[in-house]
## 1
Amino acid sequence: MNRKQLLPLLLLLYLPACVSLDQVRTFSKNACGILSSINDLDYSFKASYIKYTLPGKDFDLSLKEPTPDTAALRLFGQADATIAMFSNALLAYFSGLGQLADPSTGSTDYSKLGDAIKGNEKVLNKLHITGDQVEAGVSLAHKITDALTRHYKEEKIKEVILEDTAAVRKVVEALSAGLSELQNNIVSDQGQLKAKYFLVTADPDIDKGARILFAREYQKEVTELEEKKHAIAAQKRGLEVLYRGHQDIADRLRDNKLSAGQILSLLEQYSADLQTIYNDIKKLAK
Amino acid sequence: MATNLDLTQLGLAYQSAGKAINDRISDDFNDLDFHQVQELSNKAQDLFIKSKSLFALATISLQDDAKASLQSLSDASDKLNKAIAKLARIQKIVNIATDLVSIAGDVLSADFKEIPGSVKSLLADISAKPGE
């Protein structure tokens, strides 16, 4: 390798990173946390149908559908699968970004190679080098490979973020709209429960003790549904931050107006926001 | 074909009608007999159940608009996974170089007994998938 070839490599060792890999990793990890919480939410169209529309054990005075309707089960199952498809597509994308930005991805271990050369007198003599020179070579190889790997990762991340901003926006919007429909579904569940509550309260054949039990159960259900609604609202806020963060970075990368320090502080801010929202979701969706 | 917005609006209209009936029961509860409450409650529940089917349909209809973007995201994920696999290959090459040093040492020492073992290790490195 001549000096002209070596110079760009040496420059790479000292150039500041245009994309902060650590922060991309943290941002992606927090984005994955929000997206996973959507898959882990203990509420779905199908679960709602089974719980509130089909008769349960107690107080089923209005039996709307005595047995599960196959078409209804398919419909609600498809709606759930649609939401899962959007969140899983985003999850695969952000987990790929996070994995590529992870320091352990592509880190190369030269120590065994160094030991193999150092431990072999014949090879050392043939190459006319000493053990110390091998150590120095291994150390340089580490630095050059790390710099090249970092540069490759940064370029790849930049390329993917720039190319796919519109797709991320579209899928985030679709996922958020799906979550809004799920919130609408909760409001209808609450209305349905209320209608059933009136029915039980007005029924002269149900004794006072049973009515009190039902009233307690009703309150518990309404509160749980309210918490699910808040958890979904937090997830939608998380999606908004996730999208804005992705878009903001893409815009600035495109204009080349962002310094490494600015990218870092932007990513830190978005990551912190995502972490806060994620903690809220965890508290709400127990 | 109904759009996502149409289906949502219709679902919300059914929901509002259900809520209005609930309000009516609540307001006139003391003046209604059980059968009147039963009739109104059933009507309200029916409206809420219909609204939920419309919300589910509205969710499914989102797929059409997002189809191309989902494909782009899937391509982007593939690109990221390929980049990750490419980086894993660097370590594989270093492992092969390590085995080659071992073979070179055996050849230079004329230690022919050790060569098959070193070659076996080299072959294992060559055939291993990145990340193994």
## 2
Amino acid sequence: MISTIKNLYEHDRRFRFAFIVIIGIIIFSSLSFFSPYDPSSSYDVPSDQPPSIKYFFGTSSRGQDILWKMTFAIRNSLLFGISTALLSRIISILVGLTAGYKGGIGDRILMSINDSFIVIPMLPLLILFNFIFQEKMNLFLLSLIMACLGWAWDARLIRSQVLSLKEREFTRTAVYSGMKSLPITLKEHLPFVMPIVFATMINNMLWSMGLEVSLAVLGLSDTDTPTIGTTIYWANQHQALVAGVWWWIAAPIVISTFLFVGLYLLFASLNQYIDPRTRLLRIGG
Amino acid sequence: MGILKVEDLKAYYMTDVYGIKRTVRAVDGVSIEINENEIFGIAGESSCGKTTLMKVLSGAVKSPLTVVGGKALYSFGDGSLDILSLQEDELRKIRWKSISCILQGSMSVLNPVRRIYKTFRDFVEAHQKIEKKRDFMRRMRDHLGELGLPREVLKAYPHHLSGGMKQRVTIALATIFKPNVIIADEPTTALDVIVQRGVLQLLREIQKEQKNTIILVTHDMAVHANIADRIAIMYAGRIVEEAKASDIFENSLHPYTQHLIDSLPMIGDKSHRISIPGAPPNLADPPNGCGFHPRCSSVMGICREEVPPLIEVGDRHRVACFLVSKESGDGK
Amino acid sequence: MKYGFFFRYCLQRVGQCLLVIFIGITITFVIPRLAPTDPVESAIATANMSGQYTHPEAVAEIRQALTELYGLEGGILEQYFNFWKRLLKADLGPSYSSFPTPVMDLIRRSLPWTVGLLLTSAFIAWAIGNLIGGLAGYFSQRGWARTLGVFCMAIRPTPYYIMAFVILVLFAYILPIFPLSGGLAIGVHFSFSWRFITSLLKHAFLPSLSLVIVSGGAWFLGMNSLVSNIVAEDYVVYAEMGGVSNRNILFRYVMRNALLPQVTGLALQLGMIFNGALITEYVFSYPGLGYLTYNAVFSGDYGLVIGIAIFSIIGVAVAILIIDLAYPLFDPRIRHQ
């Protein structure tokens, strides 16, 4: 793993940029543990101050230092994304592996259901969900429901990897030599499946965090917990732009743009690295 | 009369990915001379470099393939043409009219979303203006008819045709302009034996009628035995033996050639078939000296250090082996 | 049997569409029942909290409708059955916030705006993204191709909301070229007049632009990578060996084949583009389903929220079915068997 990262860092400019950005953002979010202000308190500092040396990102209309607020927001958004990605991995892997290994009519039925989940527009459903739960909505609950809805695309990718592995020589050899299915899966196939699982995790994080922003802006996420989306929500609630407090909105937008682009570049370079064609070219030399 | 002269051709695949540089020496010093009006076979195991050789000879050199040395000179009557130094537009002029190809994998050389006659039209229009559609269609029908293909093929899509038919269509496509040279790379692999025979017969008839040169590249010695006039055996990117077909089969001198012939099944012969020990060489890290030495049963000290030169030992019979040159008194 | 295969294909696609609708609507049925409290009562309570006063008789009728659609009387199967019964009558109940207007009417009024925005933006994005992406993939060594690639890589992960917001700020606030909100200027009505058309276009431009940039960027990248793979395919290499002109190869061999997975891709992505359209409408206060949803949430109009959810699912499923049925037009392997 370390060697992979080192390899990518040295030779892939995209990865290098993304890696630095993401590490930077993670460091930034861990600053939240050193924050002098509690994230839910308000009027700690003078309101509506533009960015300065003292208040690096300025302050909000509720008297909060935006810099420290953002450390919490990014941290929560990241945790949210990771938690959704991990939870949905469980379903993705289960469905992908089962469909891929079983084949036949079981596979077809699973894939039909899977494809239904891919195409159903999630936003109206999530809006409904949030609407029902309202006050009781919290970030973890949101993460759970998104995981239950957003596994389908990755399940399909895992399944195609399994399908290609099934056909390969070394699988047939293992089967003929009497190895049972589960050990084959775990010992022979996992090293090939894991990279895809990891890459799709990043993709899933992008999806869920982006959707959280959309929901929060409508006021439907957990508005008491600071995240990228809820920060924008509160800024809008206080008419930040109209009142001229542009830094309140700019901060989450700029930081989240770096975050999303960084994650995406990470995903793209990782994808290219694990592509079997480039894999072949990496051997030897 | 020579139509193609290859001199010490070297073509490597050079990749540099994630800091790992890899050079595959697919064609590593090939020199051959091919005449007009003959079927010249190039034989060897998979990944011995013959497909790369074919790519270079047809002018289809694309990164990461690079020609690092040597020449490939065609003579189509009016002077010689170094195909490696031609510009894009000059290349296009001789493509298909003077040199055409039949690729391996006839399954997929035809555009799956285009009807056959339209694909034909694409190839023809690149070199000739088509005045009347009706004349063109008639010409195509006749041409296909000569190859035993029914007229319905023209309006069909590739997925409607069987493997054998697709290969015939490809041959028809390759012979539209009656080119001087047809390079055929594994034209019969992936076809069953009966269809194979039909295709080979077709190729032989075409050659006899158009009196062109067919360079036939395949690992299948039986195919060479069937139609080749002269055969060159390739190993690890180099030519190890070259002679008339009859000489190769009855009088082979290189140990590798002998193994290849021995591995051919023959009716009535129930003796034990032995395969060559060892594995084909890794062209990214080829062995020093003679490429075959790790697997050769008669290996000598010198084989490990020096590359045996290709020397003439009989009537247009050349071998690259220290065993032979020693016996015939040439070289060391 | 020439028709056998094609027929089976169409049947399969229709079946899949029905499955999607079935699963989607079942989820819509399940979600309210996950709530810790009676959804109907809490919906009415919320609506009251948001400051609406409604006539008691109206409340009773609403309660009746909501209970039938989303209530918990009877066993779960009975609820499910009643749910479908209502749906099949295309009766989504009355809207709470705009009582007594039926939900269906409100949706019908907003629908043309969303459909117009979505259809045009999705197709323009698809067409332009694929065309430019294909060219960039074919001429991958050129400067412009690489620059565009980098640009799209930065655009693609941007959530629709952020793009819409940035565009709004740039072109409606900072450089007020375009209107801030709405679908038409005040006072303009539907007619075939020039005034109507310009007003319509002016208001639709920014939301469209926002959608087109984000999804176009995604199509660009997809087509780019597809084309780089297809260029290595046997039939392209062969055509090049035959001396077929570059232009011919690019369009008839490369792009034509690359389009096939992109058509399928459009069918798969439509749900997400729809999500993007909803949120973009909210940002620009464009009077489509997105804006309607926001208002519904804001005013606690339970029936409307569910109605929009159901309608969205059906709408997207049908749109996908249409694309699926159009796919054979592109792929002769399905058309002629």
